[in-house]
UniProtKB/TrEMBL annotation:
<feature type="transmembrane region" description="Helical">
    <location>
        <begin position="420"/>
        <end position="446"/>
    </location>
</feature>
<comment type="similarity">
    <text>Belongs to the MurJ/MviN family.</text>
</comment>
<feature type="transmembrane region" description="Helical">
    <location>
        <begin position="178"/>
        <end position="199"/>
    </location>
</feature>
<dbReference type="Pfam" id="PF03023">
    <property type="entry name" value="MurJ"/>
</dbReference>
<feature type="transmembrane region" description="Helical">
    <location>
        <begin position="395"/>
        <end position="414"/>
    </location>
</feature>
<keyword id="KW-0472">Membrane</keyword>
<feature type="compositionally biased region" description="Basic and acidic residues">
    <location>
        <begin position="10"/>
        <end position="22"/>
    </location>
</feature>
<keyword id="KW-1133">Transmembrane helix</keyword>
<feature type="transmembrane region" description="Helical">
    <location>
        <begin position="328"/>
        <end position="346"/>
    </location>
</feature>
<keyword id="KW-0812">Transmembrane</keyword>
<protein>
    <recommendedName>
        <fullName>Peptidoglycan lipid II flippase</fullName>
    </recommendedName>
</protein>
<keyword id="KW-0133">Cell shape</keyword>
<keyword id="KW-0573">Peptidoglycan synthesis</keyword>
<feature type="transmembrane region" description="Helical">
    <location>
        <begin position="366"/>
        <end position="388"/>
    </location>
</feature>
<feature type="transmembrane region" description="Helical">
    <location>
        <begin position="65"/>
        <end position="93"/>
    </location>
</feature>
<feature type="transmembrane region" description="Helical">
    <location>
        <begin position="288"/>
        <end position="308"/>
    </location>
</feature>
<feature type="transmembrane region" description="Helical">
    <location>
        <begin position="151"/>
        <end position="171"/>
    </location>
</feature>
Length: 456
C-alpha cells in the first residue's frame, strides 16, 4: 500500500502500533548492545594513544604515523564502509524474495568486487604517496614524508584485511547479530600498543603499522568465524547474480561516506600546513571526540539500518519518516550533554591520558582546546549518520552525492577561514557548521522523497 493511500480502519490498527513500538524497542536494545561494546572497544584505542604519547609526544614520528593512518582509514571507511551500508538492505531484500542461500550468493559476488576495488585503491594509495603527500602536508619535513610513504605500504595490508572484516560484519548485522562486530575492533589498538612497546627499538614507529595489520587480522578471524558458524559464505564468488540493486546504492553511499569521513582527512591534511606538531594535535584531540562519535552513531546507525530497510520495503514511507524524526531528535538531544561534558572534562582527561614522557603541559592545553572544538560537531554529526542510512535505504543517490559535495566544499572553505584566525583549533571548530548544513540537506531530501521509493 502506498504511503499516500489512506489505510482503512481495521481492528488490528492498535496491534500495528504495538508492533512498531516493539520494533523501536528492539532497535533501542540493539543500539544499547552495540554502544556498550563499542565503548569497550574504544577504551583500547586510548591505551594505544597513551602509549604513543609516552614514547613520541607530538614529534615528527607521530605526525608521520597519524598521516599514514588517516589515509588508509579513510579509504577503508569510504569503500568498505559504504559497501556495508549498501549491502544490508540489498541482502535483506534478496533474502525476502528468494531465501538465505540466494542472499549469500549475492553477498559473495558483491564481496569479490569490493575486494578488487579495495586492493586497487590501497595500491594506488601507497604507490602515489610520494606525489600527493608533499601537496597534502607541505609543512612536514622531507624525511617525515618519506617515513609516511613507507608506512603506507605496510598499511595496504590493513586496508584489505579490514575490508573483509567490515563486509563479514555487515552480513552478521543483516542477520541481527550485532555484538561481535561491535567488540572485535578492540583487538587492533591493543595489538598496536603492545607491539610498539615491545618492538620500538627494532621497528620504530613502523611497529604501529604492523600492529594495525596483525590486530585487524585477529578481528577478521573472529568475525569471519562467527559468520561461518552461522552457515554464511566467507569467500568471494566469480559468478554474478543480479547486483544492480546493490550497485545502485553503493556508488551514492560511497560519495556520502565522503561526507562522514572525508572531513577528518581534510582536517589532518590542512593541519599539517600549519607546521610540525599541528597534525599530531588534531590526531590526539580528534581521537577522543571520534571515539564518542563512533560509539553513539555506530550504535544507532547499525541498529536502525535493518529496521529502516524492512519498513521501506513495506511501502510505509510515512511511518519511516516519523521514526526517522524520532531518531534524529533523540541522537541530537543525547549529544548535547556530551558537548557540555567535553567542555568541562577535556583538560583533565587529556592530562590523565597523555601527559607523561615527551607529552608536556603545553601539549595538554592545545589538545584540550582541539577536543572541545571538535565536540561541538556531535549533534549535527549524529543526525547526519541517521539521515545517511535513511537516504541509502530510500535510494536517494543524488541527495547523498549533493550532501557529500556540500560537506567537502564547506569543510575546505571553513577550515581555511577558521585556521587563519584560531590556528589548529579553528580547523576542529569548522566541522560543526559543515555537518549542520549537510544534515539539513539530507533531512529535506528524505522528507520530500517520492512515496514510490522503496528498498527494493
Amino acid at each position: 500500500m502506498s504511503a499516500e493511500t489512506p489505510a482503512p480502519n481495521r481492528p488490528d490498527d492498535a496491534g500495528d502500533h504495538d508492533d512498531r513500538s516493539h520494533d523501536d524497542r528492539a532497535v533501542a536494545r540493539a543500539g544499547m548492545t552495540i554502544g556498550v561494546l563499542s565503548v569497550v572497544a574504544k577504551l583500547t584505542a586510548f591505551v594505544r594513544e597513551a602509549a604513543i604519547a609516552a614514547v613520541y609526544g607530538r614529534g615528527p614520528e607521530v605526525d608521520a604515523f597519524f598521516l599514514a593512518l588517516a589515509v588508509p582509514v579513510f579509504l577503508l571507511a569510504l569503500i568498505a564502509g559504504s559497501f556495508q551500508i549498501a549491502l544490508v538492505p540489498a541482502y535483506l531484500a534478496r533474502r525476502r524474495a528468494a531465501g538465505e542461500a540466494a542472499a549469500d550468493s549475492l553477498f559473495a559476488a558483491a564481496f569479490g568486487r569490493m575486494l578488487l576495488v579495495v586492493a586497487a585503491g590501497s595500491l594506488v594509495m601507497a604507490a602515489a604517496a610520494p606525489a600527493y603527500l608533499p601537496w597534502l602536508a607541505p609543512a612536514l619535513a622531507p624525511d617525515t614524508l618519506a617515513l609516511t610513504a613507507d608506512l603506507l605500504w605496510i598499511m595496504t595490508l590493513f586496508v584489505v584485511v579490514g575490508a573483509a572484516a567490515v563486509a563479514w560484519g555487515g552480513v552478521l548485522n543483516a542477520r541481527r547479530r550485532f555484538a561481535l562486530p561491535a567488540i572485535a575492533p578492540a583487538f587492533t589498538p591493543l595489538v598496536m600498543a603492545v607491539l610498539l612497546l615491545l618492538a620500538r627499538d627494532s621497528l620504530g614507529v613502523a611497529a604501529l603499522a604492523w600492529g594495525a595489520v596483525l590486530g585487524t587480522a585477529i578481528e577478521a578471524t573472529l568475525v569471519g568465524g562467527a559468520l561461518r558458524r552461522l552457515g554464511g559464505r566467507l569467500s568471494p564468488a566469480a559468478g554474478a547474480p543480479d547486483l544492480a540493486p546493490l550497485l545502485r546504492r553503493w556508488g551514492p553511499i560511497l560519495l556520502a561516506n565522503l561526507l562522514l569521513y572525508g572531513a577528518g582527512v581534510l582536517d589532518q591534511m590542512m593541519a599539517a600546513m600549519l607546521g610540525p606538531g599541528s597534525a599530531s594535535a588534531i590526531g590526539y584531540g580528534a581521537k577522543l571526540v571520534l571515539a564518542g562519535l563512533h560509539v553513539a552513531t555506530l550504535a544507532i546507525g547499525v541498529a536502525i539500518l535493518p529496521a529502516y530497510s524492512d519498513q521501506a520495503a513495506s511501502g510505509d514511507l510515512a511511518a519511516l519518516r516519523r521514526r526517522l524524526r524520532r531518531h534524529v531528535a533523540a541522537v541530537a538531544a543525547l549529544s548535547v550533554p556530551a558537548v557540555a561534558a567535553a567542555a568541562v572534562l577535556a583538560e583533565p582527561v587529556v592530562r590523565l591520558l597523555y601527559q607523561r614522557g615527551a607529552f608536556g603541559a603545553d601539549d595538554t592545553a592545545l589538545v584540550s582546546d582541539v577536543l572541545v572544538a571538535y565536540a561541538v560537531q556531535l549533534p549535527p554529526y549524529a543526525a547526519a549518520v541517521v539521515l545517511v542510512r535513511a537516504a541509502a535505504v530510500l535510494g536517494l543517490g543524488r541527495a547523498l552525492a549533493g550532501a557529500a559535495a556540500a560537506n567537502l566544499v564547506l569543510t575546505v572553505a571553513l577550515n581555511a577561514g577558521f585556521m587563519a584566525v584560531w590556528g589548529v583549533v579553528g580547523i576542529a571548530l569548522a566541522t560543526a557548521p559543515a555537518f549542520l548544513a549537510t544534515a539539513l540537506i539530507l533531512y529535506v531530501a528524505v522528507m520530500r522523497a517520492p512515496a514510490t521509493r522503496t528498498a527494493g
